[in-house]
Each structure stands twice: as structure tokens, then as C-alpha cells.
Write a structure and sequence with these properties.
The chain is mainly beta. Helices cover 0% and strands 33% of the residues. It contains no helices and 36 strands.
Length: 523
Amino acid sequence: MAIRKSSSSGIPFGNTAGRPASPSSGQPYFNGEEKRLELYTSSGWQNIVSETPGVVSVSGSYLESAGSGTIEIVGTNFTTGAVASVIGTNGIEINANSTTVNSIVSVSAVFAGLVSANEPYDVKVTNTSNLFGLLPDAIYVNNILNWQTAAGSLGTFNEQVAISVSATATDDSTITYALASGSTLPSGITLNSASGLISGTLPDIESNTTYTFTINASDGANPAVPRTFSITSTARTAEVLLVGGGGAGANGNGNTGGGGAGGLVYAPAYGLSPAMTLLITVGAGGAQKADGNNLSGNAGDPSYFGSIIAAGGGGGVGWGDDLSTRNGGNGGGGGGENTGGAQTQTTLNSGVSGILQYGNNGGNAGPWSPPYYTGGGGGGAGAAGANFTANGTAPGGIGREYSITGTSLYYAGGGGGGTEHTVNSNTPDSPGGLGGGGTGRGYASNLRGGNGTDGLGGGGGAGSYGGPGGMAGGKGGNGVVIIAYPNTFPAITTIPGTLTYDQPTRSGYRVYRFTAGSGTITI
């Protein structure tokens, strides 16, 4: 293409190929192909009018842990001497510590002093002509993660139980968790690398054990942050459960009190050891009295295990002979109390530490105000016996639930009281408490009170009317003595024939359940 001169300025113009072949320094030329005015210099043809740079993308990261970061900037029209900078949300512009122009389309910049409070940062590149390009919201500070779970104990658990605890941290990116070098978890326990969940089943141990370990939490960019935790596992000890014999229900005229349950004592950590010798006595339930009016029930006998005593349940109380004071009888209390009233606990083991003991009072009786002179229910280990009600029922107090044998069972339920006294009425039976309490009978049902269940220490139910002589209250149930200890201990070597027992199955334990008799055993 021929070179032409501008008619107005005398500056030659044309396309790129039409530039003068041997221009002198300072020669101007208007390049219509590139749409720019050029000047020939020692570096060749240069654009006389500066072009605006553009920022297209950035890469790299700024680490809070390092306090700096190298950012690679890709764009257009970068010139030698260009300066990179960032602008935070607070509006303050911060120049890079260093800017390297790699090419017209590439710049490397090193930044320092950025904080997450002012993120995201806009990235700006300014040429020496003061023309600049900017990419908004281009840089975030990669923060050091923060642990949310406090260092130290994650909990105390029994051996051979399933656990699920977490050790977690927060960050502005994905976190992974790993045990630090040299750290181990208990056998059977694992760490979830994505969530920090620590779960599994603790191992069988001989003595209480604390496991200490360190977990590194990492976001993959900043250095991992360690934190030390611990889990304590407690060795199983001898558990002992005693229930005294239940009290018998009173008899006569259907208004009598139900028998109280045997007192319940639970020793979760008795401390058995090999070669230990102990006296065991299973409390017998209160005997059923002969048919007859106004007879209070017999109390149950206490159960013994070494120095621990579970009192027998109180017998139900009969009603009065004097017509002016014919009130229904109070229910016998669980654990030895013979009167109705507020809930109480037995105190026979006040000098023995580390045990729980239960025995609530029986219910109050109804007054001489036909048809509401009903007997109170017997007290259970878990609740007091019920007072008389308008419909005449007075249930025995509920027992308490334990799984010492490996199966959840209720023990020491109170006997039901006698029901409403109305001549020729046939009022419903009064239920015994859950846990072996016998049922109390109605005025005209002509039945003896229900017996308490042997081996659970339930109280006997009150007797029914049954004519002028009355029907006897139910017998109290025999108590129980149960021992459960780790199967790493030896079996009991001596069990005298005077003791009746069986051996329920419970994983990891030796269990002996004594339901009658008395004798000395040796571990």
C-alpha cells in the first residue's frame, strides 16, 4: 500500500504494512489498521496515545498466617512501570509491595497488610499514563481457622459403650481433620476427616483410662492448627442391687391399706475384688395374715449384702372397729415406713457412701364418710402409694427400673389399697404398682389381696370384704440381691445351698441373682 500524507497535517498514513521502510527517530505515522497515531523510536513503532489497561482475572491467594500473598494478574495493555493495588471495602487503596510487569497481558504483585475485615478487595493496575483497569471483588483473605471445640476433655464414658463426640473448627474454606503425628485414638474409635466426628465403641479395660490425643485442623492453605483433647473411659465395677421383702396388705372389709414395697438400694460401684467374702440375705416378703377384720399386714424382712441393708416394706394398715372412726387404712410405706404421707427415703445406709436408696411412704386412707373410706396404696421405690379417690381406687406406688441383669426391669412396686366400701357394691380392683405390687380387692369381690411378686420385692394388695370376717391381704413379694461385675473377674467360688439363685446373661458381665435364702459367698 502506498504511503500517503495527510492533506491537513502532512503526517503519512496507511496500514501497518505501509509504515515507512527506513524512518528516522521521531517519525510520526497514522496507522489506520490499528486506529492509532504512532511514533518511531529506538524501540520501534510506539503508540503515541496511551491505551487503557484492563484487568481480566487474578489467581493466587492471600494467607492470613503469612500476612502476605503473591497475586498473578491477567489483562490487557499493561506497560512497563505499571503499579498494582487493591481497594478494600473501607475505600482505602493499598499499593503492592512490588509489581512486576511480565508482559503486556501479565503482572505479578506481592501484597501485605490485608485484613479480612475489609474483604473482598478490588484489584487495580495503573499504567504510567495514569490510565487504569480494575476488577471488583477479586481477592479474599484466606483466614487462619478457629477451633470451636475447647481443648481438654470431650467427656467420660463407660467402657465398651458407643460414643459420638465432635471436635470442630470454622474457616472460610473447607477444613479437614487428622490425628497429629504420634497421636492415637482408643481401639475401636475413629476420626472422620471431613466432619471432626469421633465415634465408635470404647474397648474393654481393666481400670479407668484417659486417652489423650492431638488433632490437626487444616484448610489446605494456612498451616494446620493443632488442638489436644482427651476421652476418659471408666472400667465397669460391681454393681449391686438390693430390694427388701415387700410388706403384706391388710385384711378385712375392703378398706384396708396395701403393703409397701421393699426398700431399694443401688450401689453402682461397690468395689468387689477377688477373694472377697460377703454375707447375702434375701428379705422374705411379709406373710399373709389369716382372714379377719382390721388386721394390719406383716412387714417384709430386710435384705443384706455386706454392710448394705435394704429395709423390708411396711405392712398395710387395717381400719378401725369403732364406727365413728372407721377410716380406711394407710398403705404401708416402701422401705419400712408404716404410715401414709409424704414421700421419704430410707436411712439405714446413711454411713455407707456411693449408694442410692429409695422407699416412699404409702397413701393416706379415706375418712369415715360413706362411700369414701378407702385404704391407701402401698409405697413403691419410685413413688408414694396413692391416696383414696372418689371412685375408690388407691393404686400402689410404682417401682424403679434397672437393667443390672441385662434386661430392663421394674423393682419394688407398692401393693394396691382396698377399694370403696359401699354395701353390696362391686368396685374395681385397685392395681398394684409396676414392679411386683399385688392388686387390692374391692368391697364385694370376696377375694384375697394379690401377692407381691417374689424376686421383685413388691408389696401385697389389700384384702376384700368377703363377709363379716374379711379376706386377707396379699403376701409381700420376696426381695432380691443382684450382683453384676466384669467377666474379667473370677466367678463366685462358693455359693451355699441355702441361697436360691440364677445367672442372667449380660454382655461383658457375670451376673448372679439371689431370690431367697441367706449365706456367705466368696468371689
